[in-house]
Amino acid sequence: MEIIQQLIEIFPYAILGSILAGIICGFLGVFVVSQRVVFLGASLTQVAIAGVAFSFLHLINIEAMISSLFNIVITEDSFLHHFEPAFFSLLFSLLVVIVFSQTHRQKFLTQDGLLGIIFVVAIAARIMIIQKSPVAELSEIESIMKGDILFIGSREFYSLLAITFFIITFFTLFQKQLKFVVFDPESSSAYGINSKLWLLLFYLVVGTGISLTTRYVGDVFTFAYLIIPSSIGIMLGKNVLKVFLIAVLIGASLPPLALFLAFKYDFSSGPMTVVLAFAAFLTVLFYKKIKEN
Amino acid sequence: MEKEIIKFTDVSIGYNRKTIAQNISLSIYQNDFIGLVGPNGAGKTTFLKTLLGSIKPLSGSILKDDLRFGYVPQRDVVQPLLPYTVFDVVMMGRYSLMPTFSSPKEIDIDKVLSSLEKVGIYDLKNLQYNSLSGGQRQRTLIARALAIEPDILILDEPTNGMDTPSHYGLLELISELHENQNLTILLVSHLLTDVANYVKKIILIEKNFFQFGGIDEILSEENLMKAYSSTFSVTKLNDEFVIRLKQRN
Q1: Neighbours of B16 (CB within 10 A)
Q2: Do A177 and B89 lie within an 8 Å CB cutoff?
Q3: pTM above 0.80?
Q4: Among B95, B141, B152, which would you mutate to test the A interface (most chain A Cβ atoms within 10 Å of its Cβ)?
Q5: CA distance B154 to B17
Q6: B3 near B30, Cβ under 8 Å?
Q7: Per mean pLDDT, which range of A28-42, B140-154, B216-230 is the poorest?
Q8: Could B52 and A174 be called an inter-chain contact, meaning their C-beta atoms sit closer than 8 Å?
Q9: Could you tell me which CATH number the domain at A2-292 has?
Q10: Which residues of A touch B93 (CB under 8 A)?
């Protein structure tokens, strides 16, 4: 009880932010897993980190460009290390999903192959960029990779809230088109729905969600919560709505519990969220096997 | 005389400027029942995509009325992990007719249910698409196409990989849809005998070889030799075509 009180007092935004990150990943994960593009999640998390690493090179001063464009004065303290990493993380991810969305049913390149290439290139690029960065703060990059949810402050929390709202609104407003295009892209074109455009929009939103979540809670958390809650939802859900509800519920409920356990037993919070999700997955898998027999 | 709804004039089809078939001229009329046959890689899918407007012809002209196409893909293409019900899948066909932000209305639900009735799977409407047999899945996809009240129904290898009862059951259903609903149908298949015994006209397609017309006219041993580079015997037994491979070259 004492630990819970301490957690709520010291890390209120971390608790709330981890719930939102779990909701985002659980929701998007249903699409990623059901589309059989799980590797997209892995690749995008690495691309997002490469984007963060790139921001430390300071080759392009985005803040200065924005301030001159809108004629506003921004102090370095308010923006630096907050806006640029997220901006480049998002930019890199969106470029990748644009390329990826156009590779459906290519003759010479499988989507898996392409994602594999992106995955390793993103890791290599990140390592090289960090080595050459004049101001690289390894501790910050490390924290992103390790996925320390405890770093979520009010700014990150409100960003995650905005992303959650954006994603759910987008998928609710355009659920008909997205459902058909994701289910059967080939036929949807024949029925007059522009499947290329809708797939591009779909992947852009997925890329946005994954890259920004990676920036705030780390690649380990993001990838795990894209895959595990949605897999549990698919195993247990009797209809599509229930699959989403279960995935979102699992995604939202496990991170705070993991924070508590990490705090209590002195573990890193990111890996603890993964271990807990895996335990939930094993339990459901075991239950399903017993039920089947 | 039925109304002409599609007219190909000297059309070449292909991808990225690579011609797969050329000199295609044909007219499709309302209430036609056409089979599209040819060897693997002959350009059947390219022809379909060109007809549907997914790819542009390399040359020539295609005149189409403002047609509504009911497309039925090969069922292997649709392998969802999510537990969509049969009703959900058929309703997807109606999505293309609804305004962007609106949800299904009473009329959409009626059309979906009547389509399920037409293909004989009304009782399966609440079952998961994933749990169905191959034949039932194919009927679901046909119902989805019928739900939009198409001007022309296009079926891409609908009986692929089915057991014999499902295979002939499905061909009977397609035939009934043509007879009872006066539907214009284009049936793509690699099974010559099936096509010959169900459709009324045939398109025989192979690289740089294109034939279109009545079955007796097109299914000659000479044409099949040109298309498949193999020798066939074509005979009629009790008014049914029997096509046998005599020699593979």
Answers
A1: 6
A2: no
A3: yes
A4: B95
A5: 26
A6: yes
A7: B216-230
A8: no
A9: 1.10.3470.10
A10: 191
